[in-house]
Specification:
Layout (H helix, E strand, L loop, with lengths): L9 H20 L18 H6 L7 H12 L10 H4 L2
């Protein structure tokens, strides 16, 4: 259902684009290649179990948790441009 100046299916297109962006962002954060033996952040050894469980692991668990916490605060994309988002 379109509303006003939007095309039919515009809302679904926004949803599809948001999902595609999230998938692409997640894929870009996956490790590739061989896992490192030592954390690139703190230099501590990365346990063998983590290197087997996470292909391409570059950080120890503690440093990866810190990275994830920083990234989670970044927020997403508001494609709807609501009045509230425009006021920020």
């Amino acid at each position: 259902m379109a509303g006003g100046w939007t095309n039919d299916g515009a809302v679904q297109d926004q949803i599809d684009d948001s999902v595609s962006d999230a998938v692409e962002r997640a894929r870009s954060q996956l490790g590739n290649g061989a896992a490192r033996s030592h954390c690139e952040e703190c230099g501590e050894p990365i346990p063998e179990a983590r290197r087997r469980a996470v292909p391409g692991a570059r950080c120890c668990i503690a440093c990866q948790a810190e990275r994830d916490a920083r990234r989670d605060g970044a927020g997403g994309v508001n494609r709807r441009a609501s009045k509230d988002s425009l006021l920020r």
